[in-house]
Structure formats: C-alpha cells, structure tokens
UniProtKB/TrEMBL annotation:
Pfam name, any one: MFS_1
Main localisation: membrane
Transmembrane segments: 22-45, 57-77, 89-108, 114-135, 147-169, 175-198, 210-231, 237-259, 280-301, 307-330, 342-360, 372-400, 412-429, 449-468
Organism of this sequence: Streptomyces halobius
Record has Ligase as a keyword: no
Domain Major facilitator superfamily (MFS) profile: start-end pairs: 23-472
Protein name: MFS transporter
Location(s) in or outside the cell: Cell membrane
Native organism taxonomy: Bacteria, Bacillati, Actinomycetota, Actinomycetes, Kitasatosporales
Keywords from the UniProt entry: Antibiotic resistance, Cell membrane, Membrane, Transmembrane, Transmembrane helix, Transport
InterPro entries: EmrB-like (IPR004638), MFS (IPR011701), MFS_dom (IPR020846), MFS_trans_sf (IPR036259)
Length: 505
C-alpha cells in the first residue's frame, strides 16, 4: 500500500514517483471523462431526437439540464471537497457521474434522459473542482506546475478527441454508447484514486465556513425557471405556462441576490463584484461563452441536418478549433503577458465573430475545405487569441488568496451564459419545435442565428476594449507584488474557461 499523507499534511508526492504518476492519471481520467462527455453529446443530438421521436426542445434540454445543475453547484462542489476531503468528494462525483451516465444510456424516453442529464451535472460539479484540487493538494510545491501542465494538456487531448469519438459511437453502436463510455472510465478511475491518492482537506474549513446550500438551490431554481420559459416559448408563445416560470425565475434570481448579500459565507460574495476589473472581465466572459455554446449547439445540427454529414464526419469537422487551442493557447497566454490582455480580448471575439459569419456559407452539400474549414479555422484563431488572456485577467484582477474563488465564479458564469444561450437562441432565431427535421427550415433559421452569436461577441469585444486595463497582468508599480498567474497552460474547453486557482507571480 502506498504511503498516505495525514489529512492536514502538506503535499509530499513527487510527480516522478510511481504514486505521483497514478495520482496524475486519476485526475486526468476524472476530468477527461467530464470533458469528453461535454463534447460528445452534441454530436449525438440528431440521432437522439430521431430515436426518441423528440422535438427541438428535448434536444435543448438534453444539453441544458446538464449545464443547469453543473453551473449551479460547481462552487458548492469545491467547498465540499475542502471540508470533507478532496479525494472522497472526487470519488463520489466520479461514481455519481458514471451512474447518471448509465441511466442516460438506458433512458426509455426523453423525460428519463433529461432527468439523468441533470443528475450527471451534479456529478460533474463534484468531480471537476476536485480533479485539479487533488493535484494542488497532493504534489510537492516544486512539482505542481509540471503536474498541472500535464493535467491540462492531457485534458485538452480528451476535449480534442471527444467529437471524433462521439461521432464514431453514434454511427457505430449507437448514441447510447456516448453515455455508456463513461462507465468503464469511472471503473478504471475509482480504484486508482482509492489506492494511490492521499486524502487531503482544508484544515480550517470545517471550523470557519459553512455551505451556502440556500444560495445554490435558489440559483438553480432561478436558472431553471428562465430556461424552461425560453425553451417552451417557441411552441407555446406567451401562455401562462411560459410567463409564470419566467417571472418566477426572475423573482428567485432577485431573492438569490438578496440572500447572498446577507449571508456571512455566501457562495457568490457580492463584494467581489465591487472590483471593477473582475466584473468587467466576467461581462466579457458572459458574451464570449454564450456565443460559443450557441454556435456549437447549432453547428453540429447544421452539419448533419443540412449539409448531410454523418455523426462521425460532423464530429471530425469540429476538430480544428480544439486542436488550435491545444497547440497555441500556451503561446497566446505568453503573448498576453507581454502586450497586456486588452488587445487579445478585443481581437479574439472579433475573429470568432467572423468565423461564425463564415459558417453561414455552410449549406446543402457543403464542401469541407471550401466552406466549413475556413470558418472553423478563423473561429479557432479567435478562441486561441482570447481564452488564455481571459483566464489570466480574471486571476490578476483579485488578490492571490481569492484567485480560486474568482476562477470558480468565472467558470460558473460561463456555464450559466451557455445554458441561457442554448435555451434562447432557437427562440430568437425563430426555430420551431420540428425545425431540425427539415433541412430547408433549419438552414434558414441557422442563417438568422449566426449573426446573433456574432453580435454578442462584438459586444464582448467592445466591453473588453473599454474596460480591460492593458497593465492588469503586471505589478501595479515597481517593487509591488506580482499578480496571480494561471497554472493551466492549455485551454481547450469551448463551454467554459478552466478552473484555475492560479499561482503567485
């Protein structure tokens, strides 16, 4: 049995040791499972709709149910790990995620699938913060940077191969295997975690902090009400069944803000938004990830429903964006350190908007080299330009001891923005419940949706240009303490920026 650290002991595992390699493998398996799932499901949506005889709303809920619980609970998941043990909560999250995935794969109808996807999001909220926290807590300080770099790079590989794997499974054994895939991954991850990963926890957390369960519940219910109204509106119009959830969601959102202001230990401390630079970069985050989530949700459908691609072809077609981020995000981060984040955070959204407008050329029998690839390369260039500087700016805008909280809030904000975008974009583009069954109808609404995504990105670019300080990544004055810098060097997720507690400069 490998030597285990005492709960309050500092990290003492070497990356080069056998135990260190197993710890890294555990963290990569857990986070890779969640990242793989977030990319493969979109590819399976058309086949899910056909097999379950579902309308567009069901496809939206298949995506948003997962995003809803994940965005609402991810901050709480990190706090649970700090108090009750990072390994324990991570293992619970992996098992929970796998069990929910199995239920997704066995779902006899759309209602069970949507409920299981919401449960998957709960598991994701437990395992995703714990994955990086294990590395932070277990490894020796002089090994952590290399361990985090390896973790983020291998996680990027999982994100890159996700659409390809998803397409292969959908065209082969079927869409249910997109979910069944998580079960053997979890079966490999859990025994390794229990055997090799030392248990760690925040020694003072139990005596000093509580859990903001009311805040998490109110946030989830508020998002659920608004999301339900947005998804139901195209079919039901301004019926009471749409208006009541919308108003209820907005009222619960107001109650959530009130509760967070009054709690001694809020999940989302209002005081942190008094920092103008932090609030500004989160506004950019909302715009950027709302557009990205809407784009990838609709583009996979466009490629299959309109252009006639198979699931494998559609998944493979999207690889350029992730590969570009995997190869170039570290250099983008270095560039932003030299020139400041203001220009990258302005130019990146503009490039991404151009890529989305180019995607409007994709129609029936679209040529991949002439129509699809140029759009995705331009989009990927924009994503490379902006994502790493976005994370850097979030971390640098707050004190070092609040960097982890700032990163968690930024990640949750991005996921909430993506959730609302997937819910709202079909409504704004005029997509009916059966739009994805008709190539002509879907193509027409897709061409209306892409300018909306591009417009949101341009709003983000304007906010960045007007509010982001060029010197935010440097010390305020000579001799002052350097701001916190990211530990993750590879940024490959299209749904949210990485969770990154940062390291002091």
């Amino acid at each position: 049995m490998s030597e285990r650290l005492e709960p309050e002991a500092p990290g003492g595992v070497r990356l080069a040791s056998s135990q260190g390699r197993w710890v890294l493998a555990t963290a990569v398996l857990g986070s890779g499972m969640a990242m793989l799932d977030s990319t493969v499901v979109n590819v399976a949506l058309p086949r899910i709709g056909t097999d379950l005889d579902a309308d567009l709303a069901v496809l939206q809920w298949t995506v948003t149910a997962y995003m809803l619980t994940l965005a609402s609970l991810i901050l709480l998941g990190g706090a649970l790990g700090d108090r009750y043990g990072r390994r324990r909560i991570f293992v619970i999250g992996v098992v929970w995620f796998a069990a929910a995935s199995l239920l997704c794969g066995l779902a006899p109808h759309a209602g069970v699938l949507i409920a299981a996807r919401a449960l998957q999001g709960v598991g994701g909220a437990l395992l995703m913060p714990g994955s990086l926290a294990l590395i932070q807590a277990v490894f020796r300080p002089d090994d952590r940077a290399r361990a985090v770099g390896a973790w983020s790079g291998l996680g990027g590989v999982a994100a890159a191969v996700g659409p390809f794997v998803g397409g292969w499974l959908v065209d082969g054994p079927g869409w249910r295997w997109v979910f069944f895939l998580n079960v053997p991954l979890a079966a490999a991850c859990v025994p390794v975690a229990l055997r090799y990963v030392p248990e760690t926890r925040e020694s003072k957390a139990a005596g000093r902090r509580g859990f903001d369960v009311p805040g998490a519940v109110l946030g989830a219910l508020a998002l659920a009400g608004v999301t339900y109204a947005l998804i139901a509106a195209p079919d039901r119009g301004a019926a009471p069944s749409v208006i009541v959830p919308a108003v209820t969601g907005l009222l619960l959102g107001a109650v959530f803000v009130h509760v967070e202001r009054r709690r001694a230990d809020p999940m989302l401390p209002p005081a942190i938004f008094a920092i103008r630079q932090f609030t500004a970069v989160n506004a950019v985050t909302l715009c950027v990830y709302a557009a990205f989530s809407g784009f990838f949700f609709l583009s996979v459908l466009q490629l299959q429903v309109v252009a006639g691609y198979s699931a494998l072809e559609a998944g493979t077609a999207l690889l350029p964006t992730t590969v570009l981020m995997l190869l170039l995000s570290a250099r983008s981060g270095e560039l932003s350190q030299r020139i400041g984040p203001r220009i990258p955070l302005t130019v990146g959204p503009v490039l991404s908007a151009a890529g989305m407008l180019l995607m409007m050329r994709v129609g029936v029998d679209a040529s991949y080299p002439a129509d699809v690839l140029p759009a995705l390369v331009v989009l990927g260039a924009g994503m490379v330009t902006l994502v790493a500087p976005l994370t850097s700016t979030v971390l640098a805008s707050v004190d070092v001891d609040r960097a982890g909280l700032a990163s968690g809030i930024n990640n949750a904000a991005a996921r909430a923005a993506g959730l609302l975008a997937v819910a709202a974009l079909p409504l704004l583009a005029g997509m009916g419940p059966d739009a994805y069954r008709s190539a002509d109808e879907f193509a027409a609404t897709f061409r209306r949706a892409m300018p909306l995504c591009a417009a949101v990105l341009l709003v983000g670019a304007v906010i960045a240009w007007l509010t982001v300080r060029p010197d935010v990544l440097r010390a305020a004055k000579p001799g002052a303490e350097e701001p916190c810098h990211p530990e993750c060097t590879y940024h490959c997720g299209a749904s949210a920026p990485p969770l990154d507690p940062g390291e002091p400069g």
